[in-house]
Amino acid sequence: MVKKVFVMLLLFCTAWTARAQELQCDVVVNSEQVQYTDRQLFSDMQTSIFEFMNNRRWTDQPYQPDERIKCRLLINLTAMPEIGTFQANVQVVSLRPTYGTGYETVLFSFIDKDWTFQFNTAQPLDFSENNYTSNLSSMLAFYAYMIVGMDNDSFGRLGGAPAFDRARNVLNIAASQGAGYVGWKAFDGNRNRYWLIDNLQDPQFLPYREGMYKMHRQGLDIMAQDPEKARTTMLGFLADLQRLQQQKPNAAVLRAFFDAKSDELVNMFKTAAPVQKQQAFTVLSQVDPTNNTKYEILLKR
């Protein structure tokens, strides 16, 4: 009887843990540019970051195992100025399923070039929401909250607000206690962690955040059933982005949006009616000239 109760408790705890974590995060650490004989260090780093992202709760929301947010951290180590100190550029990517299909859309894609951190296999990664522990744990926590916030915004209007508040708190603590690490302050650059969260919490960017909900719930999620309606919704969102680009040219969050979505936008409109294709091209070529070559396919009959 005691054994049976123990097994039931164990199963309950396991099920609760599975519901608790929000992220299903793949982590890749590329150390090819770093000359160091003990290569096990980089495997340990990858494992530690993987466990940090996947084995803790980032919100109070219940998540079922199949609801966990798929995401990736591609950490490209570029230098080791001294033993235990690393410089890197990192691509953060998150995915979102679309309703009624097996398709996963890239929701967030951002390259952060300002990673400098210490890592020691003997010292486990730790994080406290109200205290600074290390630059690495702060950067990882910041992007965990960003990923959750972006995902929640796509499923509910402004649903990501609590996660973005937590990301802002991480940023404020790291900026004040982080021993001068870059990426946390406005003057560190124009496309860094500061500007990402600043854009998302700026009232002027409210059309962007509301548009992310419209694009996904009223666009991509109905694309298979009603492509005409989905494209009409998307054109409205693109018009909002065009106005934002005029008000806030080269904003970090807009650049991140087109890095994530340019290919998908082409696919959404390349089979549209000629009028919609022309409308999409006109807006996209203005707001995202970097990818203009991609958008030119929309002009073809």
Automatic annotation (TrEMBL):
InterPro entries: DUF4835 (IPR032274). Pfam families: DUF4835. The keyword Signal applies. Keywords: Signal. It comes from the Bacteria. Residues 1-20 form the signal peptide. This is DUF4835 family protein. It comes from Pontibacter diazotrophicus.
